[in-house]
Amino acid sequence: MAPSPTALSVALLGCGTVGQEVARILMEDAEELAARTGARLDLVGVGVRDTSADRGPHVSRDIVTADLEGLVDRADIVVELMGGLEPAGSLILRALRAGKTVVSANKALIAARLEELSTAATESGVQFSYEAAVAGAIPILRPIRDSLAGDRITSIMGIVNGTTNYILDMMTTHGSGFDDALARAQELGYAEADPTADVGGGDAAAKAAILASLGLHTVFPLEAVHTEGITEVTSRDIEAARASGHVIRFLAIAERVAREGGADAASVRVHPTLVPADHPLAAVRGAFNAVYVTADNAGELMFMGQGAGGAPTASAVMGDLVSAARRVVAGGPGRTEAAARSIEALPFAESRTRYAVAVVVEDRPGVLEQIARVFSAHGQSIESMSQGRAPEGADAAAELRIITHEGAEGDLHATVQDLASLPSVIRKPTFMRVGAK
Amino acid sequence: MAPSPTALSVALLGCGTVGQEVARILMEDAEELAARTGARLDLVGVGVRDTSADRGPHVSRDIVTADLEGLVDRADIVVELMGGLEPAGSLILRALRAGKTVVSANKALIAARLEELSTAATESGVQFSYEAAVAGAIPILRPIRDSLAGDRITSIMGIVNGTTNYILDMMTTHGSGFDDALARAQELGYAEADPTADVGGGDAAAKAAILASLGLHTVFPLEAVHTEGITEVTSRDIEAARASGHVIRFLAIAERVAREGGADAASVRVHPTLVPADHPLAAVRGAFNAVYVTADNAGELMFMGQGAGGAPTASAVMGDLVSAARRVVAGGPGRTEAAARSIEALPFAESRTRYAVAVVVEDRPGVLEQIARVFSAHGQSIESMSQGRAPEGADAAAELRIITHEGAEGDLHATVQDLASLPSVIRKPTFMRVGAK
């Protein structure tokens, strides 16, 4: 066996907020990291497109380079923090194929090309890890991949986007409207100037695909994630949720669904969800993230922490880096779990959950029966029904709030469509999904 | 390189509740586990002292043996679930020295002999893992060891004993007395007939030592854990805690403490602690466990789940087993982190926290000033003082409830001693520690 290396050269690709924090930690904690790893971690280069920009006090100008491929070639470990699909994808593949360990925080890339990148790592016998790509500082991917490796995960529900949790929390606790809450999130730097990826659900969908892939031992395609953002959540929805003992949380959900006489399927989706007010996910406030996992043997587990920010994300990157470096020092090949078996995406129409449906109706005898008949005709069984105050501008009306037992999306959509066509129904009914019993 | 094995032989030492669950999972999920691991996991033997006892439906009688050493010798992976110091310790050492992978759930043994066992594993280049020893199903040791490997943990606070959390929760939410709550816990099977290890804190102390060792990168001796149980917590304490906006939780605490002009020290202790009512640890109900970790970069993290029970504990054992088996299949040597640097135990008198002190005094002018002077003489600064109702049988008295700013244990003890000697103080003052700001 070759002697253990006494130093490993580390290349940083990208040097924004997270990259600068990684550089800082590598410098400030060099001695302690070397003791824990068994070898020094030497930052040999920082690859960026614009070499003239200031990279903060922890990156010396003489290691900054625009020659990204050259930098990859002279490193033992490549840390990719550029984001985006290219050139990040090509650079990571180049590194993995050359037998280099790779750490990445690039959720979009990983959600899009997990299988290809994992296969390249396995073929070269190196580690490819990306804990920081989901839920920032929270150790969630490693526990799912390793600690729960001998269990069967049946459901993962995550608050994986801090911006939207902050917005929903502001709407819930301060009665803010969506636009005000978003503006406040932007002021505080939680939300980007263009908040589409957050409030539209794209960011959460990428994380859902990664959680589903690892948790359900498959490669779940990003395109198959059913995605609804929070842009249409109103103060009225929040109030109705409260009235039924719930709060609204924006969840990324990956469920293993048993199908009669067939293999299990995966229901992976991102949408605003009613969560019971006493559920641990309801207690996740502000910009925090949390992931709630249910497994056959472990039962229920929750992981909570900071989902974004330079230092927290850098903590997750550094955990991957030290773990992978230890492996290099020990001399063994890595093993990134290959997708052991594949699990089919459940057609969204077959996805099952409970629903909270709001129907504004004429306030006269017989209407309730009509409404109930529509639910029943589509096999949607009603758990509770209550009457809320009529919305503004609809004086002769009442709002029925119905919570259903578990039913299929397809049936629910058909129910809503039929409700809308009833003469006694004044507005198109709205609904939210109820999760986390 | 030798070809990867297609099957690995697994030996179970001990076959109680957890062992039977591990046997069940190995049998029921054999195919899926093989796909995830890359090799079959064959249960080749179950070692027990009494071979005639029934071991449930998942352990076939012909693999049960009393020849523990012989069983160890013919296994690739040894799963030790016997508990106790011996013969578990000798058997594990025998296995490790012979280059076998070992998984254990034996907190008492690991707290007592972590250094020796880890060294044996490192020397043989094999994995020794024991996730199930702390907080049952909750993945906590692996995240601390690997995911936070590049961060600096400053504090770990854990609810790591479900029995005591159940008792305190019953006292808090139902107003039960300690004895009633304990009796109920015994009825439900949460507490043993002899509850000493739980309510006296011995169980939590072993877990605190393990958390401290991994989290602070040292080997923290069990004897150096300051341990106070919950047997003296009264309904009155619970009520006083509530009055000041707290709940009482039984915490295992491991803190890194900076000392002027010297190396950091470790304060590791187990005691009932006042936790703010809106702190996530206050929301941990019933027999659940949770561990709250603070690190320089990650910030605050919480891990919650089931801390005991056959299936949850077996989940953690299986996670270790599959992870270690993957490593064997990949052909690389393992690396159990050696204690990279040692950190001294902080003398308990130097341990610092806030305190809630209850003093029953004569209800007359000037007493308050006397009391305050004692605190001040010992450098204990007072954060708040309020007057509670007098305890039963002390009519002419008042109870002062004082919460201090952070101060040292030694000073607090001296303060309490001096308070007790004041003529105006009617009973020996009591105190609880206030944590988790």
From TrEMBL, chains A, B:
Where does this protein have coiled-coil stretches? none
- Residue sites binding NADPH per the record: K107
Q: Which GO terms describe its molecular function?
A: homoserine dehydrogenase activity; NADP binding
User: Which cofactors, if any, are listed as required?
Assistant: a metal cation
What are the recorded Gene Ontology BP terms?
methionine biosynthetic process; threonine biosynthetic process
Which pathway, metabolic or otherwise, does it act in?
Amino-acid biosynthesis; L-threonine biosynthesis; L-threonine from L-aspartate: step 3/5; Amino-acid biosynthesis; L-methionine biosynthesis via de novo pathway; L-homoserine from L-aspartate: step 3/3
The residues listed in the UniProt record as binding L-homoserine, with positions renumbered to this chain, are E192
Enzyme nomenclature, EC number: 1.1.1.3
Q: Which domain of life is it from?
A: Bacteria
Chemical reaction(s) catalysed: L-homoserine + NADP(+) = L-aspartate 4-semialdehyde + NADPH + H(+); L-homoserine + NAD(+) = L-aspartate 4-semialdehyde + NADH + H(+)
Q: Which residues form the ACT domain?
A: 356-434
- Which PROSITE patterns does this UniProt record tie to the protein? ACT, HOMOSER_DHGENASE
Q: Keywords of this protein's UniProt record, alphabetized? A: Amino-acid biosynthesis, Methionine biosynthesis, NADP, Oxidoreductase, Sodium, Threonine biosynthesis
Family annotation (CDD domains): ACT_HSDH-Hom
The UniProt entry's sequence similarity note says:
Belongs to the homoserine dehydrogenase family.
What does this protein do, in the record's words?
A: Catalyzes the conversion of L-aspartate-beta-semialdehyde (L-Asa) to L-homoserine (L-Hse), the third step in the biosynthesis of threonine and methionine from aspartate.
Q: What is this protein called?
A: Homoserine dehydrogenase
User: Which species is this UniProt entry from?
Assistant: Falsarthrobacter nasiphocae
Taxonomic lineage of the native organism: Bacteria, Bacillati, Actinomycetota, Actinomycetes, Micrococcales
